[in-house]
Amino acid sequence: MVRIANAVRPRLASAVTAAGPRLARLTRAVRVRPAHLPRLPRPRTVRTWQYTAGAATAGLALAAGVVTVAGPWDANGQRTAERDRVAALERSGGADHGRSGTARAGAPRPAPSAAPVLAGLGGTASAVGTKKAAPAPKDLSGLLGPLLDAPALHGPHAAAVVDVTTGARLYGADAGQALTPASTTKIATAVAALSALGPDHRLTTRTALEPDTRELVLVGGGDPTLTAHTRADGWASLRALAADTAEALGRRGIHKITLSYDTTLFTGPALHPIGVNDNLAPVSALTADEGRTDGSASGPVTRVGDPAADAAARFAGFLKDAGITTTSPGPSKASTRAENLATVSSPPLSALVERMLTNSDNDIAEALARHTALAGGQPASFDGGAEAIATQLRKLGLPMAGAAFHDGSGLDRDDRLTADLLTALLVKAGDPHRPGLRPVLTGLPVAGFTGTLSTRYTDGAAGVVRAKTGTLTGVNTLAGTVVDVNGRLLAFAFLASDTTNALEAQAALDKAATALAG
Hints:
Layout: H1 2-31, H2 48-70, H3 78-89, H4 137-148, E1 157-163, E2 169-173, H5 185-197, E3 204-209, E4 215-219, H6 238-251, E5 256-262, H7 307-321, E6 325-326, E7 330-331, E8 339-345, H8 349-359, H9 362-375, H10 382-395, H11 419-429, H12 439-442, E9 465-472, E10 475-483, E11 489-497, H13 502-517
Parallel strand pairs: 4-5, 5-6, 5-7
Antiparallel strand pairs: 1-2, 1-11, 3-4, 3-8, 9-10, 10-11
Helix pairs in contact: 1-2, 4-13, 5-8, 5-9, 5-10, 5-11, 6-7, 8-9, 9-10
């Protein structure tokens, strides 16, 4: 009743305020004597206008009382909704657990409860309740030990489970053994890039006009998400850059020009040590749609041999459509005297990291490794990127014993990571004092829903496991987070080498993650 009275009071005050002017006018009208009526002796008792004012006030109070008791007090049924909510609170279930009492007959039934999906740090399993303790190490050992000793994982394997909220390790099996991580390497690349550049950093592609030679240079900014598609979907558009460049040239009266392209931001070999591979284009500071030849946005596909030349040729075509004729583009380098004509920028680094992790995008991973190197003053090459990643992780105080980086994607079989390091990376990403690292967690594929986990976990922990997958011939890894039945967010890492059946090994790791969810 106190809550209802507090809710009514503002509306009652508002009603009284609104009625005030009308009441005053009514009072004045009653007090005016018509001119044709004789003046009568004024009685000394209660006056007519006082009766009127009193009646009006009493009526207003009565109306307010009726609204308070019966409701609703406005057109949207708020009073009725409040009454129904009170009735629901008297029942058990719904969003308010543990309440008891008998609800009035005919009251709406409360909605059934649902456990949290992808709960945040420190979440609980119910809307009302006390956070329960993390799983006991002994219980986890008895649970995970047999699952990770499955025949499909007969070779060297390692595992770790950590409470993300406290950082306490709850389970470890050879957690300090360095094994081939495959694509779980991208978790390390993501943490390093975000630490070095910040989540709001953007990658810019530009055009520059040389003042002496009147040469137009397309300058690659190392944006692996630059797209030539008609619909850019929020990514930097090569078509938009061409349109803006053509407009700038038109204002200068230029309709024919020499075109070249600049890829000097990155150095070293463009081809990964694995050689030509459908999983990764030659790494270049200038590329459109990752050099894909089929219009896809993710997954393995045949790539063009020279992504920069391909992007420049497309750019020339877009300029031609806009009325600018160019020569056949060739490599060059923009001078410091060149005038910038137009630019397009990628979404923030946080979005690139999420796309990289969700789709296990090798092209983005290698580009981010090079940008991490540039931020640290190192060469933007495979070697420079690998060293820059390790340097950033050491700065964060992470357990680097046994770790070895040779690329940013995890395609190199000489990469080595430990389960301890992978779980430490995930815990660091969940640190409330480091919100800039949170895209590492939000970018992890969701079991049964997104990215490389979209077709997995359909029979168990869909929605409560988020993890980065890793697969090479003879290597299967999985590292991510899971929400257990008590609402605790756990970080885990499972690495297996010398596997002989990829599907069986993958299923064994999924079963272990599902067990954590239970």
